[in-house]
Design a protein that fits this description.
Layout: E1 2-6, H1 8-11, E2 20-21, E3 28-37, E4 41-42, E5 45-46, E6 53-65, E7 75-86, H2 89-99, E8 103-105, E9 108-114, E10 124-132, E11 135-149, H3 155-160, E12 164-168, E13 174-180, E14 185-195, H4 198-202, H5 207-211, E15 216-220, E16 226-227, E17 231-233
Parallel strand pairs: 7-8, 7-12
Antiparallel strand pairs: 1-3, 1-15, 2-6, 3-6, 4-5, 6-7, 9-10, 10-11, 11-14, 12-13, 13-16, 13-17, 14-15
């Protein structure tokens, strides 16, 4: 997860209806995230040749007041996506049809090397790549030390612990889904690198944000994850 502060005006037009930007220290964020789906199942059923694959996405953070529970401060903190990249056309098509999520399908690759060692000299790298319009793009980090539990109130906790998703629908409505997993431990990372044609992939409005130095970069250990069926919200 490579994270950047960004002007709110860039994200405001992308916020699904009924939501608002979720801020940390009054600052909006976007994150470049790469990860592996492993042993994936759709409604409990494994789909042949579509169980293990990469995803790389650019996401931002929103929240929505839970009007079914009027307790003060009862917000659902969530992610929303600018673009999601997978290598399988069927996966991208299913996500667009059922969730209207902004998926595209292009070739991907990854390197995950976590050699035993400590400190910045440990021979470790995690890199995700994708081929877009004939050119390979990539994001990478170098994890250091041992994984640690998230610190309450930290930027890492803000980035990692959003357990809902919202996506705008073609008719102007909003779809909500819940993401369930245990709290992850994270490694601190050094030397975050991105090689991306930002304007072509995400839009020129993201050029400034994604060319600056990231505010943070870390690697999460992952876990079993479940994603609920989407439901429309008013």
């Amino acid at each position: 997860m490579i994270n950047y502060s960004v002007d709110r005006e860039i994200l405001d037009p992308l916020v699904p209806r009924g939501c608002e930007l979720d801020l940390w220290n009054d600052q909006a964020y976007v994150s470049l995230v790469g990860f592996r789906f492993l042993d994936t199942r759709l409604k409990g059923i494994p789909i042949p040749f579509h169980r293990d694959f990469d995803e790389i996405n650019l996401r931002f953070y929103v929240r929505r007041k839970d009007h079914e529970n009027e307790t003060d401060g009862d917000w659902k903190r969530a992610v929303a996506f600018v673009k999601e990249i997978v290598p399988k056309r069927a996966i991208a098509l299913t996500a667009r049809l059922f969730y209207n999520e902004p998926y595209i399908a292009v070739p991907t690759r990854h390197v995950i090397k976590m050699d035993v060692g400590s400190g910045e000299k440990a021979n470790r790298i995690v890199r995700y790549g994708w081929k877009f319009r004939g050119k390979w793009n990539s994001i990478s980090v170098r994890p250091v030390g041992d994984p640690n539990a998230l610190t309450d109130g930290s930027e890492e906790q803000f980035i990692a612990e959003h357990y809902w998703g919202y996506t705008a629908q073609k008719d102007g409505g909003t779809l909500e889904y819940q993401v369930t997993h245990p709290a992850w431990r994270v490694w601190s990372c050094v030397d975050p690198q991105i090689e991306i044609n930002v304007a072509e992939l995400y839009g020129s409005q993201f050029e400034t944000a994604l060319r600056q130095t990231p505010t943070s970069a870390f690697l999460a250990e992952g876990s079993d994850v479940s994603v609920s069926n989407g439901r429309r919200v008013e």
